[in-house]
Specification:
mainly alpha
């Protein structure tokens, strides 16, 4: 008897240009580290690196959206 396919389609299709090849590291002081860990525990975040990556990108995109050039500046 043939096995059933049990693959789950990814939420976003894989694209070769989206492969992460650049490592970024940063340091936190004790209070920042505790705050991040409290947040992760409180909201049951299972993927910390995804959370950090999305937080950084969200902040960057928000700032770029706010600082876009206008016609009368």
């Amino acid at each position: 008897m043939a096995k059933k396919k049990t693959s789950v389609p990814p939420s976003q299709p894989y694209h070769p240009t989206m492969k992460r090849t650049h490592r970024v590291a940063f340091m936190l002081n004790e209070e920042e580290f505790k705050a991040v860990n409290r947040f992760i525990d409180k909201y049951q975040i299972s993927n910390t690196s995804k959370f950090m990556r999305e937080a950084v990108i969200r902040t960057i995109l928000k700032r770029l959206d706010e600082d876009h050039p206008t016609l009368f500046d």
